[in-house]
Design goal:
Strand content: 15-25%
CATH class of the largest domain: Alpha Beta
Strand order of the largest sheet: 4-10-9-8-5-6-7-11
Distance between the termini: 71 Å
InterPro entries: FilR1_middle_dom, Tscrpt_reg_HTH_AF0396-typ3, WH-like_DNA-bd_sf, WH_DNA-bd_sf
Organism: Methanimicrococcus stummii
Protein name: Methanogenesis regulatory protein FilR1 middle domain-containing protein
CATH superfamily of the largest domain: Endonuclease Chain A
Order of helices and strands: HHEHHEEHHHEHEHEHHEEEEHE
Pfam family, one: FilR1_middle
Number of domains: 2
Largest sheet: 8 strands, mixed
Length: about 260
């Protein structure tokens, strides 16, 4: 089979694609392949033969392996599949919101959020939104976050961090900082009084993110500039957490540190 047909070979058949991923895990015998797919030889062997002819797999000692070419193709095909999975599972989240705030290099790592879960809360009561954040902070060992909109959970979050003396690095947008300084100055002072805490300021950023050592919360703004408190991604897997931490690191490098209130 010619190289120009490789794309259709892989993408036009779920069975061939799944077969490649299966063999990528470890070499498989024909029996193991049939057992995995719960099929008989006439049903699966044509797919195996196609992959053999395309030089994507090879057979040695009754086991099927990925060829060097197969490994390279799968290496670059895997992120695409993961990206498509993320978009298919959470398409409403990405299409409804402004993604311009997300740094380009992190959009390119979109696939790392494959195991995130989309929560959709139809409630219009903002006071009941995002309790999940405060609950997760109670057991956190360290916290990083970008607070770009003032909500009851924002205030609760700071109170929780201060009460638990949890080391925290927080970026606030200017309007959120002004709200805290005007109405909840004591909360900011208590937060800054803890030596392991850091507070940063940015003019604006249209995303809201909280990360701990075992939890990621991520939400965006609508394209019209309004914050959406009803749809958000939550994750606990290492790849998503790493993505969230890198997102915070990017913005903290562009933020101004606030060490005391004027």
């Amino acid at each position: 089979m010619k190289g120009k047909g490789l794309l259709s070979l892989i993408t036009y058949s779920e069975k061939r694609k799944d077969l490649l991923f299966l063999i990528d895990e470890k070499p498989r015998t024909l029996f193991e392949i049939k057992e995995f797919f719960n099929v008989k030889t006439p049903e699966i062997y044509p797919r195996i033969k196609e992959l053999l002819e395309a030089d994507l797999i090879q057979k040695t000692n009754n086991e099927y392996y990925l060829t060097p070419i197969g490994k390279v193709i799968l290496k670059y095909y895997t992120p695409l599949v993961e990206i498509l999975n993320v978009f298919e599972e959470t398409s409403d989240f990405w299409t409804d919101h402004d993604t311009n705030a997300i740094p380009h290099h992190l959009l390119e790592r979109f696939n790392e959020l494959e195991n995130s879960i989309l929560f959709q809360d139809p409630s219009k009561n903002v006071f009941e939104q995002n309790k999940i954040i405060v609950e997760k902070l109670d057991s956190a060992q360290k916290i990083s976050g970008i607070v770009s909109v003032f909500m009851p959970s924002s205030l609760e979050m700071f109170q929780e961090m201060t009460a638990n003396k949890t080391p925290a690095r927080i970026i606030m947008t200017q309007d959120v900082f002004d709200k805290f300084r005007l109405d909840y100055k004591d909360v900011l002072l208590q937060f800054l009084s803890l030596k392991d805490n850091e507070l940063y300021l940015m003019d604006s950023v249209n995303l809201f993110i909280i990360t701990t050592e075992g939890f990621l919360y991520f939400s965006l703004f609508y394209k019209n500039g309004l914050y959406d408190a009803q749809k958000y991604l939550v994750a606990t897997d290492s790849r998503s957490l790493n993505w969230g931490n890198d997102c915070f690191k990017y913005f903290v490098e562009h933020a101004k540190r606030i060490e005391k209130l004027e």
